[in-house]
Design goal:
- The complex is a heterodimer of chains A (about 375) and B (about 280).
- Chain A contains 14 helices and no strands.
- Chain A has about 375 residues and is an all-alpha fold.
- Chain A folds into two domains: about 290 residues, ABC transporter involved in vitamin B12 uptake, BtuC; about 80 residues.
- In chain A, helix 1 packs antiparallel against helix 11 and helix 12 crosses helix 14.
- Chain A is globular.
- Chain B is mostly helical.
- Chain B has a single domain, classed as ABC transporter involved in vitamin B12 uptake, BtuC (Orthogonal Bundle), CATH 1.10.3470.
- Chain B has twelve helices and two strands, in the order H-H-H-H-E-E-H-H-H-H-H-H-H-H.
- In chain B, strands 1-2 form a two-stranded antiparallel sheet.
- The two termini of chain B are about 35 Å apart.
- Chain A: GO terms for molecular function: branched-chain amino acid transmembrane transporter activity.
């Protein structure tokens, strides 16, 4: 059970990173990136290939992030000046092309045989008791940070609710704030207690879990600062109406390119963690479906909302874990049909959300223009 | 070095792409919908054709039944998704994301019902025609002939009937068309009927010369969009020309790049056009 929850925590953490990258591109800057997995592919393969050549892991991952950002630059330079739907088409093509390259250029990527036995972070680390308590200390700090962020979010909702009471639209109810608070604390406590148990009985995955959570906290914190800065407000203005941002003298193309590259870089980081979690990578790990899974997370959680992206990842993995557990018990489908059914439901969720609740769970409808 | 065999294959693939791309460009131009589910409707057409064919009908009747089924599916998507969203004046990006959801739904629905294996039609075996070194597969020739017939029919409809004229007017400017008394809803209906027919034929024909597979349409969506962009969005004649260019160049690139990177060729042509002439070769 502890091991399974660690596995889920790592996946939720790395997909949260991945979703935060897409949320910056789509949620804040309005860029339709249908090839998000391309950045993950580049990040994963660069990190793995460099580190197996003996490059230190930290340098390898920095190179992976940099090359993912470079890919963003290349795609962005050619398409960001044009109609928004062109970006969608080109990114889908690039992500498929990258997967084909990973599959066919065997001299580089070993093709469908996959890359095995590459260096992993904290692999041979065998902590003594003091070091274990140190790691738990770090995890405690992360849990406090998460709880603090949750409290901040709820408090700002509460204040907003008070200040607009009696106005035209309904503020969030106090009761729903309390429920959100309990749910959030519950998740944080579960991850924390389970994390402590895993760290005391240390293995490679426990260390990786801690690293993912640290990376997630740092990226989340940085993004929150960025999107609340003038830079983030310009991005939102571009998303709502490019012409207005342009009339204010902002270089729209340059802002879009920055958001696209930064989002890509974050996805590259998520890619490195993805490779470390899988421990063997095959080109089939990087299918276009991953892009649409992360789209579902962002749309579900709420576009233009960083906590929403993380919430989306949690809900998505809860859905995944529950259907993997309960669908076989129903006995409706064979195992290959089950996979198809699961994706079919994801397609349905995406459609239903965009029709009935395009702002997702946490997004602000007043802020997002979804029509003309 | 110029290979006639590859050129011929390219023309055969190009004619399939052309039929599919016409539908995509019509809905793109007239309804302002970049439909990422278009390829999966093509797959649906192929599967319906396969179902009718394996239950004993001959292939031509099966293709007509496949087309009818595809039209019905497209009309369902129109009345459940596209029309309500258009009435709400949803933005293009919202429609694009819905189309991705629809694409996943259709493709995995097919996968759920019929599994992931390749399907073949029950066809009489016909020997390939040989002209010296050139071997021409009988069904490829049929595909090219069918595509030419379908394109001619489309041309006659667009140029000579009232519906065709109204379609071009709606594609040009929907509000202007409405105030000049064109029944836009009826035109939208006809657009879907033409799109569904051509797309299902494209799927059926792809099954005739390659194979029927749940991912067939999805793998062709990029070449389709490349054809549409090459010819200029909303321009059916441009899409036909674009499709033949993409189909032929993809096949001719095989000796140079290997058959794995056909998709890369379509992508490269598309990016080059976007950089040099984003409005397409034939639009002003």
């Amino acid at each position: 059970m502890v091991g399974y929850l660690v596995f889920l925590t790592i996946y939720v953490g790395l997909y949260s990173l991945f979703a935060l990258g897409l949320n910056l591109q789509w949620g804040y800057a309005g860029l339709i990136n249908f090839g998000h997995v391309a950045f993950m592919t580049v990040g994963a393969y660069t990190t793995v290939l460099l580190s197996s050549q003996g490059v230190p892991l930290i340098l390898a991952i920095i190179a992976g992030i940099a090359i993912a950002a470079l890919l963003g630059l290349l795609i962005g330079m050619s398409t960001l000046r044009l109609r928004e739907d062109y970006l969608a088409i080109v990114t889908i093509g690039v992500s498929e092309l990258l997967r084909l390259i990973a599959l066919n250029e065997e001299w580089l990527t070993k093709g469908s045989f996959g890359i095995q036995r590459f260096p992993l972070p904290l692999d041979r680390f065998e902590p003594n008791l003091v070091q274990e308590y140190l790691l738990i200390g770090v995890l405690t700090l992360l849990a406090i940070f998460a709880a603090w962020q949750l409290g901040q979010g709820l408090r700002s909702q509460y204040r907003e609710g008070k200040s607009i009471q009696g106005k035209s639209y309904q503020p969030t109810k106090i009761l729903s704030l309390i429920i959100w608070g309990i749910l959030g604390l519950g998740i944080i406590l579960t991850v924390y207690i389970n994390g402590c148990a895993a760290l005391l009985d240390y293995n490679y995955k426990a260390g990786l879990m801690l690293l993912v959570l640290i990376a997630l906290a740092v990226v989340y914190w940085g993004l929150e600062l960025l999107v609340k800065s003038p830079w983030g407000r310009v991005l939102k203005a571009i998303r709502e109406d490019e012409e207005i941002a342009r009339a204010l003298g902002k270089n729209v193309f340059w802002y879009k390119l920055q958001a696209f590259m930064l989002g890509g870089a974050i996805a590259g980081l998520a890619g490195a963690f993805y490779a470390w979690q899988l421990t063997t990578i095959y080109p089939s790990n990087f299918q276009t479906l991953i892009t649409f899974n992360v789209w579902t997370m962002v749309v579900l959680g709420g576009a233009g909302n960083n906590p929403g992206a993380i919430l989306g990842a949690i809900v998505f993995w809860a859905y995944d874990a529950l259907t993997r557990f309960y669908l076989p018990k129903l006995g409706w489908f064979s195992s290959s049909e089950e996979g198809a059914f699961r994706v079919m439901v994801i397609g349905l969720i995406l459609m239903v959300l965009m029709v009935w609740r395009p702002q997702g769970i946490l997004g602000k409808k007043e802020e997002l223009t979804l029509g003309k | 070095m110029f290979d006639l065999q590859l050129l011929f294959n390219g023309i055969a693939i190009g004619s399939i792409l052309a039929l599919a791309a016409i539908g995509l460009t019509l809905t793109y131009g007239i309804l302002n919908l970049s439909n990422f589910a278009h390829g999966d409707f093509m797959t649906l057409g192929a599967y319906l054709t396969w179902l009718a064919n394996t239950s004993g009908l001959n292939i031509w009747l099966s293709m007509i039944l496949g087309a009818i089924g595809t039209i019905i599916a497209m009309l369902i998507s129109e009345y459940l998704l596209w029309k309500p969203m258009r009435d709400r004046r949803a933005s293009d990006t919202t429609l694009i994301i819905i189309s991705i959801g629809l694409a996943l739904f259709i493709r995995n629905g097919i996968l759920l019902l019929y599994g992931g294996s390749n399907k073949l039609y029950q066809l009489p075996v016909v020997r390939a025609l040989e002209f010296g070194d050139l071997r021409i597969a009988y069904y490829r020739l049929i595909v090219i002939g069918l595509a030419i017939a379908a394109i001619t029919a489309l041309h006659l409809i667009l140029q000579n009937t009232k519906i065709g004229k109204a379609m071009r007017a709606v594609a040009d400017n929907i509000d202007l068309a409405r105030v000049s008394g064109i029944n836009v809803d009826q035109i939208v209906l006809w657009t879907w009927i033409i799109t569904g027919t051509l797309t299902a034929f494209a799927g059926g024909m792809y099954g005739l010369i390659v194979v029927v597979h749940p991912n067939m349409g999805w793998f062709l969506i990029l070449p389709m969009f490349a054809s549409v962009i090459l010819g200029g969005i909303g321009n059916p004649y441009g899409a036909i020309a674009g499709a033949f260019v993409i189909g032929i160049v993809q096949e001719l690139s095989v000796p140079l790049l290997g058959s794995e990177y056909k998709l890369g060729v379509a992508l490269a042509i598309m990016v080059a056009i976007l950089l040099v002439r984003p409005q397409g070769l034939f639009n002003k």
